[in-house]
Amino acid sequence: MGIWLKNARAAARRAAENEQRRAEGLQVQSSAGELSNERREQLEDIAPAWCPAWPVEWQRCFHLVRLYLEAGRLLPAGPGEVMVQGEGLGRWVQSVRLGWDGLTVVQQWMCEHILGNPRPTTRSRSLGVRKPTSGR
Q: Model's pTM, two decimal places?
């Protein structure tokens, strides 16, 4: 299944790149291997979070953090705190906080949904830490 998804993401990226080239009036060498719009919509109906433009590593860590939190565990605060299936979940959480402005709106919404409010404050942008909450 993982290989199939990897290939589907590559086909979707290829289709998006070719679409961009066409929009810019550039020649497309081949449309072979593109993911059709119909197939992409079907995949999005199955899993709205499926997005071939996002790095596979980002999606994998998001999923692992979500499962980790759903199991009742606390959110790791920084690198080296929690490893799951070879992935540093604390490192990923910190990368989300520090790279917040580089995430898409959908990625930000997904992270807010599972992490609470991971947006860095001005001070935490430089420190990579989460602003303490009031304990509500």
A: 0.58
